[in-house]
Amino acid sequence: MKKLYLLKYAVLVISLFLSYQAVEAHDKNFQVDGTYISTKRDVTGDQKIDIIQVQGLPYEEGSKFLKKIELSVESNRRTISVSLDAGYKPDLKVADLNNDGVQDVLVTVLMEGKDRLITSYAYTFKDGKVKELEVPPSVPVMAQFLDGYKAEIRIEGQKPVVIDVSSRKQTYDELGIYRNGKLNEPTELLVDPYSSLDLKTVLGKGKGLMGIQNVKGSDERDPIFEIKSVWNYNHGWKLVKAQVKPVKAKNNK
Questions:
Q1: Burial call 19-49: b when 16+ CB within 10 Å, e when fewer
Q2: CB 180 within 8 A of CB 166
Q3: What angle do CA 235, 238, 239 make, to 5 degrees?
Q4: How far is CA 233 from CA 21, 34, 132, 155, 206, in A?
């Protein structure tokens, strides 16, 4: 009888230890093999801690590509799940994005390719109901080549930024973009989607998002500008500011 009591006590101690370890892991934010991220916050607004998780299923054993990614929130013993697109290295952040006093969830997933483009998702789980907040759109710009081996980018309400791209003269001539320094036809630059979208404190407006986009010339290997934008949510995402920085090119004369 005594042995049975000791055995039950040992099982109870081990169970409590494992439960404590699980809670500790959730509290500290952790990641295992790039397929699992978890944190504990109140994202439903009921003043109780929820468990937010991002889980991914690898394409095959040892693969970094996740063919299935899922965001889930466990609240009051009920789980709400959202399926996300396939990709690499999901990232999870929690903040009050829409300024309603309840924490929201931001997930970014790396897409395939060398340019590190991302797919981003923002959700509110207020009152235990999932609703997509979407994410900021691309910055509205006009970007094009100009005669004389120049490139121009215009953001509404701001002074155009024009730079010299003659260091790429040989490439552009071979591609038929220019002939004797003149454009063969009007040619727009390539504006990438976001390569980064992260939390940003907006003065007097709470938490917002800061994104980075790259602008290319002839192809993906020809960076010309970088656009850094800050957004705030007010019945939808509003552009707070956008800055353009030229990207120095390697000499290619």
A1: eeeeeeebeeeeeeeebebbbbeebbbeeeb
A2: no
A3: 175
A4: 37, 30, 13, 20, 9
Q: Which long-range contacts (CB under 8 A, 24 or more apart) does 104-107 make?
A: 104/43, 104/133, 105/43, 105/52, 105/71, 105/73, 106/135, 106/197, 106/199, 106/209, 107/54, 107/71
Tell me how far the alpha carbon of residue 48 is from its chain's centroid.
27
Q: What CA–CA distance (Å, rounded) separates 55 from 109?
A: 12
Residue 172: phi and psi, rounded to 5, are -65, -35
Q: In what order do the strands lie in the sheet with 104-110?
A: 88-95, 104-110, 118-124, 131-132
Distance CA 190, CA 149 (A): 16
Give per-residue pLDDT as tens, 119-153.
999 999 999 999 999 899 999 999 999 999 999 99
Collapsing DSSP to helix, strand or coil, 157 comes out as coil
Q: How confident is the model at residue 34 (pLDDT cuts 50, 70, 90)?
A: low
Helix (H, G, I), strand (E, B) or coil at 181: coil
How does pLDDT run across 43-82, given as a tens digit for each residue? 999 999 999 999 999 988 888 899 999 999 999 989 999 9
215: buried, middle or exposed (CB in 10 Å: 19+, 13-18, 0-12)? buried
Per residue in 157-183, pLDDT (tens digit) is: 899 999 999 999 999 999 999 999 999
How far is the C-alpha of 125 from the C-alpha of 197, rounded, in Å?
A: 20
